[in-house]
């Protein structure tokens, strides 16, 4: 029987276990350059015992930033600063992928360089507020991307992936979940286009397919993972019946021989089973555990074949040596959920406490 503590080959690297650290926004890239700091190097090195670390969301371009003090991978200074982080993780024997996250309409002009505004498939504002340096602000109506701007955005992802490899990352994860740009193209309430980038299923999956393909061509499919969250309502997304769209998406991506598919699970385990069956490669699961954080019971998901790897979020914040504690059966420090931000995260792990 395969267990979560068995090794697995991913992206050409042999992982020490099947326990992944989920991506979690930390907002510690202080300063105008959006560059990683020594604090971030320490934070990730402390958690190098994970079979795989997936970093916080990293913007592939200036307009892709949606939150204060999140890091980028689009300037030479950022690449150099990330090298400090990846070197620290590798010295501890860890494997680390950079999550590339373009937030699309989720953000605010005050967080962007002068003259830039959030962009999206369609000019549809999200309901709610985003945290800025001046406090919470209402989401604005984004600029609808033109054909040329869409193609530039695809190229931005590929360039950022190349920068990630130059910075020493073992691979990248593309954030297609939680209501950010790739997800916005997939969802009918945020993608109201009638051209080839919207409309029917084939149109709505096109952006995701082209981004993943471009990144795979840039750095090799074996270094690329994709994160999805079908039906996730976070950031004002509405997908009443996502099965058809995501089945079609997976069908188009199978031939790229990607490192993994990372599912941020919703309440329906039946959808997880369908996607697992339709994905022949490594299947990473961030299980739905609302209102609790993912705990030791999730290890059974590897044993029973539900997933090849299981991803932990908040529990990694309070327990940097989490895999060792899971192997020993505890004890576990309890994450301080009172300082989570971003509203009702429904158990999703993109926005844990900034202070842990």
Describe the structure.
The protein has helices at 38-46, 76-91, 147-166, 181-186, 201-219, 243-253, 269-278, 300-303, 314-318, 322-328, and strands spanning 8-10, 13-15, 19-21, 52-58, 96-100, 119-120, 129-132, 135-138, 143-144, 171-176, 224-228, 260-264, 283-286, 309-312. α1 runs parallel beside α2 (76-91), α3 packs parallel to α5 (201-219) and α5 packs parallel to α6 (243-253). It is built from ten helices and 14 strands. With 356 residues, it is α/β, with parallel strands linked by helices. An eight-stranded parallel beta barrel has the order 3-4-5-10-11-12-13-14. A two-stranded antiparallel ribbon has the order 1-2. 30% of the residues lie in helices and 16% in strands.
Task: Label the overall shape.
Answer: globular
Count of individual beta strands = 14
What can be said about the biggest beta sheet? Answer: 8 strands, parallel, barrel
Radius of gyration: 19 Å
List keywords for this structure.
8-stranded parallel beta barrel; alpha/beta; 30% helix; disordered C terminus; 10 helices; 356 residues
List the helices and strands and how they pair.
Blueprint: E1 8-10, E2 13-15, E3 19-21, H1 38-46, E4 52-58, H2 76-91, E5 96-100, E6 119-120, E7 129-132, E8 135-138, E9 143-144, H3 147-166, E10 171-176, H4 181-186, H5 201-219, E11 224-228, H6 243-253, E12 260-264, H7 269-278, E13 283-286, H8 300-303, E14 309-312, H9 314-318, H10 322-328
Parallel strand pairs: 3-4, 3-14, 4-5, 5-10, 6-9, 10-11, 11-12, 12-13, 13-14
Antiparallel strand pairs: 1-2, 7-8
Helix pairs in contact: 1-2, 3-5, 5-6, 6-7
């Amino acid at each position: 029987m395969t267990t979560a503590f068995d090794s697995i080959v991913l992206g050409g690297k042999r992982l020490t276990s099947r326990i992944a650290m989920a991506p979690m926004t930390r907002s510690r890239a202080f300063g105008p350059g959006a560059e990683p700091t020594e604090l971030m190097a320490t934070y990730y090195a402390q958690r190098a015992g994970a079979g795989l670390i997936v970093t916080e969301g990293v913007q592939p371009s200036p307009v892709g930033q949606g939150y204060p003090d999140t890091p980028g991978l689009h300037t030479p200074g950022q690449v150099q600063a990330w090298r400090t982080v990846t070197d620290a993780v590798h010295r501890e024997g860890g494997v680390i992928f950079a999550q590339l996250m373009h937030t699309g309409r989720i953000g605010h002009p005050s967080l962007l360089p002068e003259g830039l505004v959030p962009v999206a498939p369609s000019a549809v504002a999200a309901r709610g507020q985003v945290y800025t340096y001046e406090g919470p602000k209402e989401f604005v109506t984004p600029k609808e991307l033109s054909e040329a701007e869409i193609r530039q955005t695809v190229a931005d992802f590929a360039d950022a992936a190349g920068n990630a490899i130059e910075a020493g990352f073992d691979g990248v994860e593309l954030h297609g979940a939680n209501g950010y740009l790739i997800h916005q193209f997939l969802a009918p309430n945020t993608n109201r286009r009638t051209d080839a980038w919207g409309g029917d299923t084939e149109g709505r999956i096109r952006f995701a397919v082209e981004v993943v393909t471009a990144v795979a061509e840039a750095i090799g499919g074996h270094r690329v993972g994709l994160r999805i969250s079908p039906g996730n309502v976070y950031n004002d997304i509405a997908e009443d019946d996502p099965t058809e769209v995501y089945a079609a998406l997976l069908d188009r991506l199978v031939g790229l021989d990607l490192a993994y598919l990372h599912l941020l699970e919703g309440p329906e385990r039946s959808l997880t089973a369908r996607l697992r069956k339709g994905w022949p490669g490594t299947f990473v699961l961030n299980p739905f555990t609302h209102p609790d954080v993912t705990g030791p019971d999730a290890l059974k998901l590897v044993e029973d074949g539900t997933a090849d790897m299981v991803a932990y979020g908040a529990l990694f914040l309070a327990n940097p040596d989490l895999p060792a504690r899971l192997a020993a059966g505890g004890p576990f420090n309890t994450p301080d959920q009172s300082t989570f931000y971003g509203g009702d995260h429904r158990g999703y792990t993109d926005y844990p406490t900034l202070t842990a």
